Each structure stands twice: as structure tokens, then as C-alpha cells.
Amino acid sequence: MRASEIRELLKLLEKPGITSFAGGVPDPALFPIARVNAAYATTLADEKTAASGLQYSTSEGYAPLRAWIASRMRSEGVPAQRENILITSGSQQALEFLGKLFLDAGDTALVTAPTYLGALQAFAAYEPRYDTVRPGTGNETPDVLRANATANGGAAKFIYLVPDFANPTGETLSRAAREQALALAGELDVPIIEDAAYAALRFEGEAQPSLQALSCARHGDINQSRVIYCGTFSKTLTPGLRVGWVCASEAIIRRLVLIKQACDLNSSLINQMIMHGLAEGDFDGQVARARTHYRARRDAMLDALAAAAVPGMTWTRPEGGLFVWVTLPDGIDAADLLPRAIEEAGVAFVPGGAFFTDGSGRNTLRLSYSLAGEDQIRAGIAKLCALITAA
Amino acid sequence: MRASEIRELLKLLEKPGITSFAGGVPDPALFPIARVNAAYATTLADEKTAASGLQYSTSEGYAPLRAWIASRMRSEGVPAQRENILITSGSQQALEFLGKLFLDAGDTALVTAPTYLGALQAFAAYEPRYDTVRPGTGNETPDVLRANATANGGAAKFIYLVPDFANPTGETLSRAAREQALALAGELDVPIIEDAAYAALRFEGEAQPSLQALSCARHGDINQSRVIYCGTFSKTLTPGLRVGWVCASEAIIRRLVLIKQACDLNSSLINQMIMHGLAEGDFDGQVARARTHYRARRDAMLDALAAAAVPGMTWTRPEGGLFVWVTLPDGIDAADLLPRAIEEAGVAFVPGGAFFTDGSGRNTLRLSYSLAGEDQIRAGIAKLCALITAA
């Protein structure tokens, strides 16, 4: 099932009466609408600020927002300065820029299986091949990975990971797996792209240091780090302002700034100003509310799965983020199941095959608990499991 | 002088006391700040609209804005429907997408000399070579252009033109030149990318039909047109919301939608909603104000040039837009002149060599009259001409 087909299918879900576990979008009930409104009003009331916010601006991004993000990164063990931050239009844009920066046709991108579909879409324009890494569960040796890449006429160019509450699996890399990934990157002499889209949304368990924090600790300096951290406000504050960031060495940021300039000149400055106001105002409060909100939904989903699961069906227990990953009994194809799930159970999900680069994972599916309320989740999971039982 | 060097240099211009004729940015005095403020307040006051505006949205763009643009295009002779419109983050993003869609390394992009620097930057990632077209003044034959492209291991993939009040020259293609460009595109069987960034800002003379309008008339249907029209609100309403568009055949739009999705998912929906409100509210009034405003500045610049020009110095007379293009007497290098102009005359411009792909144009420069008031323009041009006289 191709990305564009899934996209068409997801459009069908806008029908009323469908409980969608498909999208990975945040619950708009959490958007700080009143604060957004107040921030625009304040910013636009001052004529000088307004004129600047509505003008073209620097490709690097709004300096106070970059400084705020750097300070936040420092509080998480990453010794970043403003010069280590580039503002992007969501972290999707950062992934696309990194594909452009690193990949030539035939090069290899090292990814997990499954991995984030949007990253595959972002990299696709640069025609890479993919090889699989399994941090924590046993990688191929660097020599094998290198030889595979060379045999295909290119080189391994980076490792792409979603270490916290991954899209699509909801799983989190252990400390040991993180160290192992960094060691592999060192042996291959490639950067790691750390996609931290969900990292702030931890409900339980101990927070792991980011790959960027660990790499900075290894190298003693962010400008020597081989991690390129992609962050976003989309999952904590709102995706609608399109504000994400890259935190990396100054050398990488300078190259990305030129790419940003060529691609769209700059992200909307007024939106960056608003995001800065929101972040400075109550980022921690907003994150706390989101954690409480999504934890209750995750609990509802896990409880409902435990109550109704079919023998042979397994699922992940995410410590944060928005996703549960389900493995169906052998022989059940999730892509075949989906139309029936929509039609007969009024429930939608994303078939897991979409997240693999090699056609595997046909008996897997991704469930998001971000949009449905707890009662809906319980009812929807029960109906889905009943359908699987009958399958 | 490379784009990145120019960029560094332009940063120096933020000093007070410098009259900048360098940037091509609109005058913020024209931004409809009060209307922007009111539009945000109204949009965010309704909880449902706000929640939708702050969420992820479709890659195609906000349907009512696409419909408004299609209707506007129809009023200009282009039979467009909503399905022919993609919203982009400024027209710079459209240029980058089109580079991605059409160009492989070694392919040829056909451009004028000089041409818009940002287009060269947008295309650069795809490693094209350039060949020159001269609509209206005599192109190479299609056979020669094709042979040149083949000799370089690629193919001619598109013609890129800024037909109205071009950046950097301020010049406008005649009707005959437009027809000739379309004929050439037909003979080469390539699309034309029409960059219409300044098209709305006509001060005088008769408006020419867009290449898109002429192509639709030739083919009887926009879905058969070979023109890809890139428009923007940046020069008429405000660049700060980052809203531009592509108007092309549905087949092209569908391919660009997939690129948009991979690159940044979607442009900020709340910004598109605001832009729709602004456009629907008073687009014609806004355009009329901008025309009056910039015409007075153009007049001041042309008068000052006529009063103080050095023998052998020539310049264009733009009928709209933001730029005058100056050719200096032979032997004067504009890149050498620039540091002295800043230092001794307190005046900045962009050396013209930056807009050529072949190192020529060293005795040319681009002047923008968009930011300086009339008195400043008169004084600045007098000082610049005095410096050139002494050179």
C-alpha cells in the first residue's frame, strides 16, 4: 500500500461516525487558542513589531525563538547556543532538507523497520536505498552495512532514528541502544538524524537523554557532535503555525540555512513570534496538560486491547507519544482488513506495511489514541478486535 | 560575487544611515496591519475555525483561498478551477518544487540573462546547467538549444521567465515576445515556468496577458497548457504570512501536491485563512495603493538618474514592479563599486553580476525603489552618480 493510496483512504475517514485511530495529529482540544489569539493581538498592536513580523526575515529564524530553544535544549543536557538552531516549517521540512544535504541517488539511508512514513517521503526525492538498523537488538556490522551501500553504488550517508515513542511503534530506545547507535554512527562516520517529534510527551518511566545530549557528552562540544536533532512544537503547542527546529553543529546549521533560503526564504516570522510568546509563556504547563490528556487515552486503548485481544495478537506499551503498534496473528493482512474495519466496525487505522521499506509488516497496524475520547477508544477497539476474531 | 557573499553584504546594510536600493522587499508601510490583526481576531474567536486553522491541513491548501485565486486567475483570462491551484509558502517554494519536479543533474534550464537570483538558488540543488533565452530579441534555434543540452548529457527541461517587471531588470516582455516564448516551448516540448511575482504592480502602459492566459487560449484548456504560473501575495499584501500559489494543469498540480506533502506537509492553515480574508476583503484597493506608492518612488528614481547620470550610463524604465536596472560605462565593475558606495555615498545596491549564470554583467547593477522615500531616493541617486563620475 503506497503512501498516496493511504492518503486517499484517510480522506474517506472524514465521514462522520468513523472512529479514527489512523492520523497521528494532536488533539485540537489541547490547542491554546485563547493564548494564540492574545499573542497575535499583542504582536500586531505594536506597529513596528507588526511591520517586522509581516516582512521577509532571516532564513535562520527569529532570534529570540532560537535563543529560547537553545536554552530549552541546554536544560535537557545539550550545550546549544542560538547559532546551533535553525527554525524550519515543522520538522518535516528539516527531514527534507537533510535528505537534500546528504543523499545522492543510490546512497543508503539507515533506518529502522518500521520507520516514520513521512521521513521516507522526505528522503524519496533523492532516490536513496534503505538498509535496516536495529539499535539495541543487534545491527549488522559496520563492514556489512558499508559493503551493502557500496554494492549499490553509493555510500551510507546517515542513520535516521525516532528514539522516543517512535512513529509508528510507540517504542523508546533504551540508554544502551542509544549508546550503541552512536557507536555505530562513529564506526560508519555518518551523522544520526534524531527525530524528536514526540519526545516531550512522556507519561511514565524515566526520561532518556537525547542522542544529541549523549553525543555532546561524548565529544564535549555540540560543534563536534554527529547528531542532528529535529524538534517541533507541533505535538505540544500547535502544528498550525508550522514551527519546528534543527539543533546541530554550527557547520551543519550554516549549510541548512542556505538550503532554507533556497527553498522558501524563511518561515513566517509572525508565526515564529507567536510561537515564541506561547513557549515562553507556559510551555511546561502546556506539556503537562498534553501528557495527562494522552496518558488517559493510552490507558483506555491498552485496557481495551487487553480486554478484547485475539490470541496471537500483540501490541506495544508506549511510555509516551501518540501510537500503539499492533501485530496481528499470522496470515491476517492489515491492508485487507482496513476497508472492512471502516465499513463494518466504523474504525480506521494505518496498515503497518506502509512503514516498511521492503514490503514486510503486512500483519501489523498503527493505532493512534490522540483524537478519540476514552469511551470511543474502548468501543472502537472492542469492535476492531471482534472483526479480527471473525477474520 | 556569490549569492552567499551578497547575503553577507546585505546584512551590513542594516546600519542606520544607509539608503538601501539593494533589497527587493515590499515597503512595510503598505502592510494592512489593522486588517491582519482584525482577521486573526475574528478567525481565532470562533473555536471551531481556530481549532481547524491551528491543526495540520491538506497539502493542496485552504480550499476557499484556492477558489478565490482561481476566480482571480479567471478574471485575468486563465480558465482555472480550484483544482488548478496549489498553495505554496511563497513563490520561492514553488520554484524549488519545480526544480525538484523537472531537473536532474546535467539537465538544462533555459533562463534569461540576467535572471532572478532566487530562482538560480532554488534550482541549484538539482545541478542543472543553464542556457540563455532572449524572448523577443532572438533566441538560438530549438535545434541549437537541444543540441547544447544533449552535449551536456541532459535535456532542456523548462524555460523560466519573469515576464512582468522582471527581477532584476524591471523589463516586461511584449506580446510578441510572449508568443515567441510559447512557440519556443512548443518546439522544444518543455513547460514554461512563469514567475508572476510583480505582475499585479503595473503603474502605466497596457497590461499584457500572462503567458498562462496565452497558453490556455492556444490550447483551449488549462489542463493542456504548458505554462506553470507562480503567483504570490508577498508583493501586494504581505510576505510575512508566506502565501504563494501555483496555477497549472491538474496533472502538474497533483505531482506538486505530493512534493509539498513530502517537503513540509502543508503551509500554515491559519495564515492561509487570514490571507483569504485579506484578499477577499480589499485586494484591489491594496493593489491600487501599492501602485500609487511605488510609482511615485520609481518616478523619483528615474528623474534623479536623468538629472545626474554619467555619460555612457543607461537604465531601464520599468512600467511596474520594484526595480531599475543600470548599465555602467564600460570598465566600471559594480561589485568593486559597492563597498565604496556604502562607505562613501551611504548607498547600497546589488551588483548585477549576481544575476548572470556566466560571469558576465560586471558593469551592471540593480536598484530597488521599494524601501526609500522619494527624497532619500533623489539624494541617494545623486550621491551614487557622483561616485560613478569620480570612478
Structure description:
The structure is a homodimer of 391-residue chains. Chain A has 2 domains: 3-32 and 286-390, Aspartate Aminotransferase, domain 1 (Alpha-Beta Complex), CATH 3.90.1150.10; 33-282, Aspartate Aminotransferase, domain 2. In chain A, 46% of the residues lie in helices and 13% in strands. Chain A is built from 13 helices and 13 strands. In chain A, the strands form 3 sheets. In chain A, strands 2-8-7-6-5-3-4 form a 7-stranded mixed sheet, with helices on both faces. The radius of gyration of chain A is 21 Å and the shape is globular. The interface between A and B is large, with 54 and 54 residues.
List the helices and strands and how they pair.
The structure is a homodimer of 391-residue chains.
Chain A: H1 3-12, E1 19-20, H2 33-45, H3 47-53, H4 63-75, E2 85-88, H5 90-102, E3 108-111, H6 117-124, E4 129-132, H7 142-151, E5 156-161, H8 175-188, E6 192-195, H9 211-219, E7 227-232, E8 244-247, H10 250-264, H11 269-308, E9 314-315, E10 323-327, H12 334-345, E11 347-348, E12 350-351, E13 364-368, H13 374-390
Parallel strand pairs in A: 1-11, 3-4, 3-5, 5-6, 6-7
Antiparallel strand pairs in A: 2-8, 7-8, 9-10, 10-13, 12-13
Helix pairs in contact in A: 2-11, 5-6, 5-10, 11-13, 12-13
Q: What are its keywords?
A:
homodimer, 391 residues, alpha/beta, Aspartate Aminotransferase, domain 1, Aspartate Aminotransferase, domain 2, 2 domains, 7-stranded mixed β-sheet, 4-stranded antiparallel β-sheet, 13 helices
